[in-house]
Amino acid sequence: MEIIIQPDSRHASAVAAKIVANLVREKPHAVLGFATGQTPLEMYRVLVEMHHKEGLDFSQNTAFNLDEYVGLPPGHPGSYHSYMREHLFRHINIPASRVNIPDGRAADIPACCLDYEERIHTAGGIDIQILGIGTDGHLGFNEPTSSLASRTRIKTLTAGTRRDNAALFGGEDNVPHHVITMGLGTIMDCRVCLLLAFGKKKAQAVAAAVEGPLTAMIPASVLQMHPRAIFVLDEDAASHLTRADYYKWVYENKPDWQKY
Ligand code: PGA
Known about the structure:
Elements: E1 2-6, H1 9-26, E2 31-34, H2 41-54, E3 62-65, E4 67-69, H3 80-87, E5 99-100, H4 109-122, E6 128-131, E7 153-156, H5 159-164, E8 178-181, H6 184-188, E9 192-197, H7 203-211, E10 229-234, H8 244-252
Parallel strand pairs: 1-10, 2-3, 2-6, 3-5, 6-9, 9-10
Antiparallel strand pairs: 4-8, 7-8
Helix pairs in contact: 1-2
The structure holds 2-phosphoglycolic acid (PGA).
């Protein structure tokens, strides 16, 4: 695991955006895995800025999103279709035909999940997957006790996750109970996993995922088994890590060829 600790979320988002942009420049056909939530918003803002000011070109990329609520029409303000359109896709030149987000309104959910896995496979696999982490350690919407080998499927949200995501639904009671999410096995197949976490409320989950035991009770701990997992944190999210000084030294003393 590579742990990058930055003074604040703005600096951390800039580092994360650079990692994504470097890949897009080096591999124009890269398959990009996107996440939603509060955390990646600033990184998306920087990517949009790079598109406008530096000509960062997404025209040949393919996108896959981690998850979507079951039952929401794509136009619902709480849907991740809306989120992605609003915060990224309508501002960059990625073709709509190569944007993939699970269909929360599918009549046959198992078939829709299988089809999503097949589409990822046909696209050649995901080159980089952006990730957040839940306060309970969830990854995507893989809540605690999710199988570490799981694939895209329906999951039931915990009360805590529904509370955390209530803002766009006008109250917790309106947050759907069910979601479609890439599984932990699906995420583990991505070539690079880039996890962002900011703020004190994520500190415990981050420490458990990075320095705690590998356990389905902290789904993000599965990344300990990933060959290329990068955590980009602000000081607050890193505040429970016991080896923070070591991670900082490593990052500040990378050989030139390893720098972003
Ligand atoms: P957040 O969500 O970015 O809104 O904190 C992260 C997550 O639940 O994975």
